[in-house]
Amino acid sequence: MKSDVILKMEGICKSFPGVRALHNVDFTLKKGEIHALMGENGAGKSTLIKIITGVYQKDAGQIYLEGKPVHFRSPQDAQNMGIGAVFQEIALCPNLTVAENIFIGRGRDNFVNWKKMNAKAAEMLDSLGIPASPTQELASCSIAVQQMIAIARAVDMDCKILILDEPTSSLDEDEVQKLFGLMRQLKDRGVGIIFITHFIDQVYEISDRITVLRNGELVGEYQASALPQIELIAKMMGKALSDVSAIKKQAARKSDDSVPVFEARGLTSAAGVRPFDFTIEKGEVNGFAGLLGSGRSESVRAIFAADKVTGGEVKVNGKRVKIRSPLDAMRQGIGYLPEDRKGDGIIEELSVRDNIILALQVLKGFFRPLSRKQAEELAEEFIEKLDIKAPSTNTPIKSLSGGNQQKVILARWLITQPTYLILDEPTRGIDVGTKVEIQKLVLKLAEAGMSLTFISSEIDEMLRVCSRLIVMKDREIVGELTGTDLTEQDVMHMIAQGGK
Amino acid sequence: MPRLKTRVSNLSHLFLPLSVLVILIIVNLVKGADYFKITVVNGAFYGNIPNMLFGASELVILSIGMTLVTAASRGQDISIGESGAISSAIFVQYVLRAGGDVTLWTILVGFLISCLAGIVIGAFNGTLVSFFNVQPMVATLILFLGGRSIAFIIDGKVSPILANEISNRIGTVIPGIPIQTPIILTAVFIVIVAVVLKTTNLRLYVETVGINPNAARLNGINPKKIIFLTFLIMGVCSAVAGFIAVNKAGRHDSVNLLKFIMMDAILAVALGGNSLGGGKFSITGSIIGAYTIEMLNRTLLRLEVNPEAIKVFKAVFIIVLMIVASPVVREYAKKVLDKVQGLIASGPSHHTSGLSQGERGE
Description:
A: Rossmann fold; Rossmann fold; B: ABC transporter involved in vitamin B12 uptake, BtuC; two-stranded antiparallel sheet
């Protein structure tokens, strides 16, 4: 009966200590369809994928493969049942040949018949229309072709299901089209493809159906043609379209006469954000809105020169300056609280005190260390000001809770008395109480004359704090919303329509 | 009260080297009660302890440099013996070719030139590691393999003799001063390092870079520069160690001078409670570790272990030490301690205090 359904998952649950990653999720994949799996960070996409590929074991629920109940015990198990996956980071060996990469670890023989392997690889590449020769070294292929070879490797051995997790994130438009060509071919052969991406336009270009997850729960399954972009975005963010709650926002605090605190023209960086213009006034709080991967973090990283700046000019208080490194930015009075607290923010083993004084210390210079007493006093002062819960200034920061770690990083920048402070996802993974505290603090700082850029995945949080929103999509600024315009609907509309 | 707590927690990582030191002293005392005996010869102190301090001089200095390199670059420099051999070869050639009487000036200038050579070597290693991202051990393998040949070429012949009064005094004792000169030089070096650590942000920068280079960069620290700097410091340490070694020996033996000392230096760093994966460091720990290793060597000799077999004993000793200090055993020990404390605490009075006590103990 249901011969066209290859994969059916029912009531899948998965928990990790302290986190419910998936709760009662259903998912159906048909033969020869491209099915987009959508959701913001932490929605449970990757957990679901890892269950399908056998990396994780489900806690509850049932999986049917072509109508038969199955249980994937290991990645090998899933592979043997015809499930192939290609992840964002290409997991191939660049110094081996194309043919070797396709067949490595796949043969059952102990000896390699090179001739046969190369011939088979050539046949495969040909049939899939991949422009590469079997004996070519993988590293000499473009990223897109490498991505395609990874797919070829995955679909070898009569693959029924192909999972593509963010395959397009490092490709340019041309390369994306090539990849889509390959995907359509596989689709015609009857392979069911699960496609994960942050690029909304790509979803609509190639997908037949869309499943949306949010906070580990299924939001729904839709025909791509029947779901307008705006609704998809609303579903991902968890806002009903009709639910236009009137949120009281701050009046734009723009003083017309003064020079902007920071001004950029045509700024762009090696991280791949399109050249953009940006200004911020004294005492203004603005924000970059957009979905994950839209380029909002890349933009602020370009301002702080956290990624290599490749173009554009910058003015601070009306004066042209060169900002080539984070230190340059710091010397211009700019502070930056990074999105990835653990990877870019905290110095895990160092004490709360050292973490608090770090930026100030660097600004003072290598030969002018703060005395132990000064450092201690400063740390104590900010621990009290921001109500940081730490047993002592000597406690290693890694033993604090996420919210308190974030406050320490905030303290690190406040202590340098910046004129312009960038906060990228300052409230992510933080308890609600601390969240509100940080929002209040931002408004208080702005009142005192500091300029701030505030980025959050939660639109309503940005609406509460920012008086101006710069809307981004696909690594480009698509519009700007000021003052009274600020409703969630406007933001979603702008993201969906790509401006205006 | 908080001050006191700080001190105690700072000392906890010294537990391992200090306890080994104590064990070694006990073993030595059992072997013969005269262990601490100090004799005075020509107005200078000799005996087991002064000789141990004397013998460990080069190792102590090198392990200081090794600590910094390890902390910042998360790897080790294995060419320290070789770079010591090269810089001391340059020192010897300068002194031999200076002509006329060897004055204190000759020695001093020669020493400074050899330090410069050490810095150049450090810059070479540091460039490979920080700017070309070569793994430290691979980058320094180059000089480890080729360094002694370079030293030999500088020598121009086998083992040039360094026969002058000043060198002799640097290598042994200065008349009128009761402590052997290398011990004094080492102490001076340690003081200089302490002053540098006190008056600069070296510690904060090195630890930050070693723990999280990304975050370091976003806070305005250039990780490449800091790693490079630690290799420069390592180069100076090597030169100073080479200077002491060659003055002790009275000749420049390019094949055997400071041979395989990097193994002991790395061990001293590990023994001092430092992670070989970089990050937070304790120079005090490494110094104690270095003295411990020297004492271990001498203890084995004193126990009349066949010199050929010493290495086996040392290896066994180190295995035991590393297992005892390993996170696995430590975790287990902590659990047992917690349990014991829990039992004690739950006995007479309340139940909950056991846990918090256990945590503080760690």
